[in-house]
Automatic annotation (TrEMBL):
<keyword id="KW-0808">Transferase</keyword>
<keyword id="KW-0067">ATP-binding</keyword>
<protein>
    <submittedName>
        <fullName>DisA domain-containing protein</fullName>
    </submittedName>
</protein>
<keyword id="KW-0812">Transmembrane</keyword>
<keyword id="KW-1133">Transmembrane helix</keyword>
<dbReference type="InterPro" id="IPR036888">
    <property type="entry name" value="DNA_integrity_DisA_N_sf"/>
</dbReference>
<keyword id="KW-0472">Membrane</keyword>
<keyword id="KW-0548">Nucleotidyltransferase</keyword>
<dbReference type="InterPro" id="IPR014046">
    <property type="entry name" value="C-di-AMP_synthase"/>
</dbReference>
<feature type="domain" description="DAC">
    <location>
        <begin position="45"/>
        <end position="198"/>
    </location>
</feature>
<dbReference type="Pfam" id="PF02457">
    <property type="entry name" value="DAC"/>
</dbReference>
<keyword id="KW-0547">Nucleotide-binding</keyword>
<dbReference type="GO" id="GO:0006171">
    <property type="term" value="P:cAMP biosynthetic process"/>
</dbReference>
<dbReference type="InterPro" id="IPR050338">
    <property type="entry name" value="DisA"/>
</dbReference>
<dbReference type="GO" id="GO:0004016">
    <property type="term" value="F:adenylate cyclase activity"/>
</dbReference>
<dbReference type="GO" id="GO:0005524">
    <property type="term" value="F:ATP binding"/>
</dbReference>
<dbReference type="InterPro" id="IPR003390">
    <property type="entry name" value="DNA_integrity_scan_DisA_N"/>
</dbReference>
Amino acid sequence: MTASHLLFSSSEFDNIEIILLILMLTCLITIFLLVFILVFQRQIQTFFEKKRSRKRTKATDKEIIDFINNLAGTLAKLSYDKTGAIIVIENRDNMDRYIRSGKRVNVPFFSEFVLTLFKNHNSPLHDGAMIVRDFMIVSLSSYLPMTKKVVPVKYGARHRAAFGICEYYDCFVFVVSETNGDITYSRNDELYQLSSKPEELVEQIQAILKRWSIYKNQVK
């Protein structure tokens, strides 16, 4: 065998090695992407869903104030009666995924309806979360994801759900404990204790909802 044949064979062998290396890297990258998608499937789906645009309601200053007063009064009454409840107010992120998980409705937020719903333990709709979009109740008995983080034992399923939904969505979550009537507000990884007195509660909710996206569409 001549030297030229040896050189040619060596060159072919090097090319085969390069091709095999490229194939191996391609397979590894493909496997990595598949594993990444499988592991973070929920987060990826949530990211694209919550960025889906929706029509925003234009609100007057009076409408916003009336809603806050109504919400504060409702939470205070639920607290007084120690009626467990979880109310989620959608903010900038689209929450269609969890709206679809419950009973879809389209009714104005008014105290009598909310109190009747959560107090009626014979109704399957009293369990789960109520989701509010702008000034309308759009879903009842919605399933929310439970946080996987360790939370104090004094908190129940509603509080764990409040933590869980805030891990994925920009929203406002108010929880009333059926154990002691405490009203809490969930934001990021914290639960904040709120007053059960309507006047103080109005001021606290006003401060909380300053970030509400509906203010950007406020009609002057």
